[in-house]
Amino acid sequence: MPYQEIDLSLLTTYPASTRASKVTTALEGRPLRPGMRFLSFLEGLPAVLKADELKAVARAVVDARRLKKPILVMIGGHVIKTGCAPVLAGLAADGFITHLASNGAAAIHDTELARFGHTSEDVASQLEDGSFGMASDTALLVNDAAKRAAAGREGFGEAVGAMLLEEDAPHVHRALIVCAHRLKIPYTLHVALGTDIVHQHPTASGAAIGEASLRDFRIFASTVSKLGGGGVVINIGSAVIMPEVFLKALAVARNLGHPVKDFTTANFDMIQHYRPGVNVVRRPVLAGGSGYAITGHHEIMIPLLAAAICEYAETGT
Known about the structure:
Blueprint: H1 38-43, H2 49-67, E1 71-75, H3 77-81, H4 85-93, E2 99-103, H5 104-116, H6 123-128, H7 136-151, H8 156-166, H9 176-183, E3 187-190, H10 206-224, E4 232-236, H11 241-255, E5 263-269, H12 274-282, E6 289-295, H13 298-315
Helix pairs in contact: 2-13, 4-9, 7-8, 7-10, 8-9, 10-11, 11-12
């Protein structure tokens, strides 16, 4: 016996030509051509989704510089390992970054590149024989910087940058943490004890690391308190530490009465994780502002964002 079928001839239909639609030909990208200017490339991107968001973040950075509002860039270690330190240093030199912040790994990789021209161990093979993370010279400098900061008035990141500059490390010119020191902008270092290779050395002092990193948190929170009315926060490649630090600093700033709203946040990473999504992109701007999540490899997305920022600043578009 055949089963009953619905009668499609009774459907109510309409012409597509009269329907409201989300995509139009005006949004489509333009053909590329050899020798075109980067601005033409940007404006030729499809005017939808992440292409539009990338341009929105770049314009927000340009506007923040014009308004003299903080432009806070938070990074994880992979950003340094993918060769992006000089790109970020260039943005800082041009006033498009006013505060850098990182976990311990980023500063360690930056330090090793500045001193030796290389970084990043073969973890699998060195873990097998117990040699992973046992570089004594790296640990000595970073741990001494923590003690120096704790004993004086420097921040932790500030002390690392100063020590690399004082020893005139062979590749110091490309170090992001040194660039911040030279420009006299904060580079705050936010450390979770036990997460960094320098913590497994006898030169490590928990008291000094804790005191130095807590001072950097207070410096960081001071910057966060000034974000309202046009500031920008960009998190790149930190899945846990920096989003958590940012959320706590924001709570402190608002608790003290600072009107931190109407600012822009963005998370750039190869994979979108939970904490950056809620702690950077969504929750902080519920009271006013815009949050963006853009996925891509650091070695492509950071130079692309930097080029867009420079182009919009140059042309005023």
